[in-house]
Amino acid sequence: MQIEDSLILIVDDNSTNIDLLVSSLKGDYRLGIAKNGFKAIDYALKYLPDLILLDVMMPEMNGYEVCKRLKADSSTRNIPVIFITALTETGHKTRGFEVGGVDYITKPFNSDEVKARVKTHIFLKKMRETLKNQNIILEERVKEKTAEIQKMLSATIQTMAVMVDVRDPYTAGHQRRVAKLACAIAEKLSLSKDVIHTIQIAGVLHDIGKIRIPTSIINRPGKLLDVEFEIIKIHPQVGYDILKNIPSPWPFAKAVLQHHEKIDGSGYPAGLKDNEIMMEAKILTVADVAEATSSYRPYRPAFDIDYSLEELLKNRDKLFYAKAVDACIELFRKDNFEFE
User: Is residue 206 within 8 Å of 284, Cβ to Cβ?
Assistant: First the structure.
């Protein structure tokens, strides 16, 4: 950490004081000189010195005002200011710290004291700059690693989604379509990026638990028997168990677990009600119903989207989250939303 190349700005209207300070510091630092506050500000803005020795009592603009103006400018606010003055009252020193000064040197100067205080504050400034640069480098590395991890997670998610599609060709693409609609609903509700990202991942994977359901049940034509439906109902828990140990800041496993819960508590697997259900799951439920009822299944024909929307509207605020239902209907009827 080199401090010898540091630039010190000396601000004083008294030539004798300037000479004394220059004599003390010229062998160790580069020096700049300004004899009034206006010139000091101009110099600081142009050359960005590493430290400013600033006299308090000057004509036209005193040192306190100079310091206030420097601290108000983003380009100069981090330059340490040491006040130099013959004023020794505590009130004067306190004011100096209040306007942003880091230290106070009283006249007449002691050369060793000046050198020691300047060296200390230059060293502290260089330390702060070094730490800041190290933090910037660290943040960039973290961003790079985070991007790599997210890329790997995305690839894993897409692979897992394909597994479900391959096993159940009748619903191929269902999860991606649900994810697309659920994200559109969340965006219309002005939810946060984190919530939308959670919904996107959970949407693409919400039926992954069906890999444990026999294909003879999944692809069975006709109405399911009660015992078969009970088997179907385990898929949210299975999906959660598969996903829960994947490290992620987004709670998509929990959203998968809850995507068949209903506002009135009639859903599964836990029979959660209203506020017990996370927002991401409430939105997924609405998107899932809209897509599923408008798509062909072995046990029933596809209904048109208007039928699906009427079913949602009929159970608005009973089974389904009202705001998500309203946003879904608006997407189709006003915004011309379409599945792929």
Answer: yes
Longest dimension (CA), the chain: 103
CB 296 within 8 A of CB 276: no
Which residue in 134, 54, 125 sits closest to 95, CA to CA? Answer: 54
User: What pLDDT was estimated at residue 94?
Assistant: 86
Residue 211 pLDDT? 83
| Domain 168-333 grouped into CATH 1.10.3210.10 | yes
Mean pLDDT for 199-206 is: 92
For residue 36, count CB atoms less than 10 angstroms from its CB and return exposed for 0-12, middle for 13-18, buried for 19 or more.
middle
Q: Where are the alpha helices (DSSP H) in 168-222?
A: 174-188, 193-205, 215-218
Q: Which is it for strands 51-55 and 103-106: parallel, antiparallel or unpaired?
A: unpaired
The rounded distance, in Å, linking the Cα atoms of 330 and 337 is: 9
In the chain, which residues fall in CATH 1.10.3210.10?
168-333
Contact 243, 205 (CB under 8 A): yes
188 versus 146: the higher-pLDDT residue is: 188
Q: Give me the CATH topology for the region 7-137.
A: Rossmann fold (3.40.50)
Share of the chain above pLDDT 70, in %: 91
Q: Kindly report, residue by residue over 173-193, the tens digit of the pLDDT.
A: 788 899 999 999 999 999 999
pLDDT classification of 2: cutoffs 50, 70, 90? low
Please state, in angstroms and rounded to a whole number, the distance separating the CA atoms of residues 143 and 188: 29
Tell me the CA end-to-end span of the chain in Å, nearest whole number: 59
Phi, psi torsion values for 263, nearest 5 degrees: -55, -40
Higher pLDDT, 168 or 177: 177
DSSP letter, residue 212: G
233 by Cβ neighbours in 10 Å (0-12 / 13-18 / 19+) ranks as: middle
Determine phi and psi for 325, rounding to 5 degrees: -65, -45
More confident residue, 152 or 46: 46
CA distance 332 to 20: 80
For residues 28 and 205, give the distance between their C-alpha atoms in angstroms, rounded to a whole number: 65
